[in-house]
Amino acid sequence: MIITxxxxxxxxxxxxxxxxxxxxxxxxxxxIAGNPGSGKTLLASTICYANASRGIPCLYVSLQETKEVFxxxxxxxxxxxxxxESKDLFKYYRVPIIIDPELINTLVNELSTYSSKYxxxxxxxxxxxxxxxxxxSEVRAVLQxxxxxxxxxxxxxVVLVAEIPIGKETLDLGSVEFVSDVVLLLKQSxxxxxxxxxxxxxxxxxxxxxxxxxxxxxxDGVGIRSFIPPQLDELPKAIHGISYExxxxxxxxxxxxxNAGSVIYVSIPADARLTETYAPGLxxxxxxxxxxLKTLIIGYVRPIHTSTDLLLERAVKKFPRSYEVIKKLINExxxxxxxxxxxMSLEELYTHEIDxxxxxxxxxxxxxxxxxxxxxHGTEDLESYFTYMWNEILWLKKxxxxxxxxxxxxxxxxxxxxxxxxxxxxxxxxxxxxxxxxIYLWSSKKNPRIIDLPALDRCIDEFIYSxxxxxxxx
Length: 474
Prior knowledge:
Strands 3-2-4-5-1-6-7-8-9 form a 9-stranded mixed β-sheet, sandwiched between helices. 39% of the residues lie in helices and 24% in strands. The radius of gyration is 28 Å and the shape is elongated. Helix 6 (127-135) packs across helix 7 (137-152) and helix 10 packs parallel to helix 17. It contains 17 helices and 19 strands. It is α/β, with parallel strands linked by helices.
């Protein structure tokens, strides 16, 4: 369906639409610039596809690749322009590189014939035309007036793609940059041999933006994915009225119920690999099953024994009748994703994790072994790592996701940093006076307590027993 009233253009990337959406309401001139391979064509195509998919026809003018190559390449990113073309919502118009200034008027006249139908116009690439602009003031006036008037008088969305030579970050596009409503500079750099990508918001006319850069990544089969951390004025409010009891009486008395959106930090000795040290993971899983919470586990290592395996094994040994009940609940509620943080930049890891949460929409999120990404990304740039970690916590709180972070104990500084942003802290430690391990428990609602490790075993057994008897064990 063609949108004719209260038309609102989009950029097709959630974070950009959040920040720049209002600028596009009545038409705008958007300039996308960057080095070769930075994602300019993909972003321009995303804008075109997003609007055409909403019923706003798009004309894509290319001075580079053929239609067949373009269609094939964009289909790799889940954009089927052939389907839009069949619906008369998209047209691919290829023109040769223009070196003769006299041909500019011909191009402008040709594009003008399409202006009444195609309310989104993409020029890829504008760089050859900018070369003519530099040499001829008359050409500059014709092009500048055409694109500006098309955006403002015809209330269209005009997107110009410009190439910046490798090694440069300046646009040098003069008047075109000046008359543009939005200027997006796509940048990329190498960190630990991995590509990190940013969209710099170089200009946004009449938009009170406070974000200078937006991290993004290019995903095969998906396209551009980016994420804006919550701003200070978006600090989430505490969620009242939704809380979860622990799976046993003892922990409830010591810690109190878990509020939705809160953060629990679990620290385990790095040199202790005994089965007993998995108890906090079993408690976390039992909490999810007790309240039938949709749960996502993001693991940074693949343990020999997972929490789900250990809980089922314990059920078979202790209370066999509960096995099928627990297995059914795990299959219905629990999803596991393993992520190797060494293969991603910090920005990509951050975005990937948020995408996983958006996809699974869990009520409980368990990060297993957060010491791994902390080692990889936090050692090099601690400030950036903490910033992203804090923004991730805020985002999860805002969406009511209760978060449990398990970590091997690295050092006191790392422990305190994680504890400082958590609502509950569980730390298993070795006692100097006794050979047995102890557990330090603290929550924002209660005074801290130290208990014996077997208390967690009793808690797990109490939960398992209750599933098959609906009563508490003696």
